[in-house]
């Protein structure tokens, strides 16, 4: 595992570049970067990087920013029988909060209708993280699951853990699609963590926009009701958003040709934001420097090119948002003028973690309390 990112970073207040028109235009002109990314996508030999490796940390205090690790992974109905050490790097990497959002977790979607428990998965996660991390709250809906762990030094500052669910499957009852969420107070700040599994399909982006909008409104209202009529401060959203590439890509195309920025520029989530649709309004996402995380062979980093072939997609994503509505002190101060306290430090995908037809995506944040 590399200790430094292979890709460019920029200085505060945005430590990691964002996936928007400006940064996309800038990096898509970098010939060396284009060559590297095209090769990574052609051979699927991407090596991820984590920040803060081998930087031990003493007990948390108010002089430190909180470090948050957020992971999203569609597990394809299984629990890996191998170690997840390379996902958490728990021996050499410290976080105050760890959030894991999974889809198709532990069991298939159909089986999960009759048995929703994720106890086995939670036990595995606790064993992977060790005694220094304590479960704060979790939520499940059908095959979706989200869990929040906190380092024991931060536990005294955490309270009011709440869980929420919202079904968007068949007739709005079945939870094969929809979202789940957990909210917690860390000192006087309210954190909202959402995990969703949106409609699949190449031509379903409009429906995914509608699902996302309804989930955001629902969970925002739930937090307001359950936290003494106070809005959340920070929202981090994981999920299998099922975003696809608007291009007719064939198995032969993938074998012989790779155009990273060409495909990324046709990513449906990016196009929705670029066209100023309501989908994910005011949300931010880190610039993508990793290959599509779907659809791959379960136990080998290669595209699935047989009868189960799907057009590749950056389905697995992490978005975030700081609620600044309650913090603006004067009408002359705009959202853009305010310094964000929630900062994305890293955004990557881990192709070392096999067992599913998706690869997990992770983000590292700091937030000033």
UniProtKB/TrEMBL annotation:
<dbReference type="Pfam" id="PF22669">
    <property type="entry name" value="Exo_endo_phos2"/>
</dbReference>
<dbReference type="InterPro" id="IPR000300">
    <property type="entry name" value="IPPc"/>
</dbReference>
<dbReference type="GO" id="GO:0004439">
    <property type="term" value="F:phosphatidylinositol-4,5-bisphosphate 5-phosphatase activity"/>
</dbReference>
<protein>
    <recommendedName>
        <fullName>Inositol polyphosphate-related phosphatase domain-containing protein</fullName>
    </recommendedName>
</protein>
<dbReference type="InterPro" id="IPR046985">
    <property type="entry name" value="IP5"/>
</dbReference>
<feature type="domain" description="Inositol polyphosphate-related phosphatase">
    <location>
        <begin position="64"/>
        <end position="369"/>
    </location>
</feature>
<dbReference type="GO" id="GO:0046856">
    <property type="term" value="P:phosphatidylinositol dephosphorylation"/>
</dbReference>
């Amino acid at each position: 595992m590399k200790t430094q990112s292979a890709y460019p970073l920029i200085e505060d207040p945005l430590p990691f570049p964002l996936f928007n028109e400006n940064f996309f235009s800038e990096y898509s002109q970098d010939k060396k970067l284009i060559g590297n990314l095209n090769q990574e996508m052609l051979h699927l030999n991407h090596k991820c990087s984590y920040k803060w490796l081998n930087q031990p940390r003493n007990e948390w205090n108010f002089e430190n920013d909180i470090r948050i690790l957020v992971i999203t992974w569609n597990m394809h109905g299984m629990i890996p029988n191998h170690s997840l050490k390379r996902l958490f790097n728990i021996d050499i990497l410290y976080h105050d909060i760890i959030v894991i959002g999974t889809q198709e977790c532990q069991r298939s979607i159909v089986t999960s209708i009759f048995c929703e428990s994720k106890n086995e998965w939670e036990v595995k996660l606790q064993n992977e993280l060790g005694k220094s991390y304590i479960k704060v709250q979790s939520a499940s809906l059908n095959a979706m699951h989200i869990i929040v762990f906190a380092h024991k030094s931060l536990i005294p500052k955490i309270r009011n853990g709440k869980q929420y669910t919202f079904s968007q499957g068949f007739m709005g009852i079945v939870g094969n699609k929809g979202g789940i969420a957990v909210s917690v107070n860390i000192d006087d700040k309210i954190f909202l963590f959402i995990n969703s599994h949106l409609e699949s399909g190449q031509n379903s982006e409009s429906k995914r926009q509608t699902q996302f909008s309804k989930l955001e409104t629902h969970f925002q209202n739930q937090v307001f009701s359950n936290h003494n009529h106070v809005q959340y401060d920070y929202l981090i959203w994981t999920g299998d958003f099922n975003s696809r590439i608007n291009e007719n890509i064939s198995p032969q195309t993938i074998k012989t040709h790779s155009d990273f920025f060409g495909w990324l520029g046709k990513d449906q989530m990016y196009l929705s934001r670029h066209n100023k649709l309501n989908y994910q309004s005011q949300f931010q996402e880190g610039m993508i420097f990793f290959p599509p995380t779907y659809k791959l062979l379960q136990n080998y980093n290669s595209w699935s090119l047989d009868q189960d072939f799907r057009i590749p997609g950056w389905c697995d994503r992490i978005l975030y948002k700081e609620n600044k509505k309650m913090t603006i002190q004067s009408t002359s101060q705009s959202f853009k003028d305010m310094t964000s306290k929630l900062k994305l430090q890293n955004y990557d995908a881990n192709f070392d973690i096999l067992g599913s037809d998706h690869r997990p995506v992770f983000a590292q944040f700091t937030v000033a309390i």
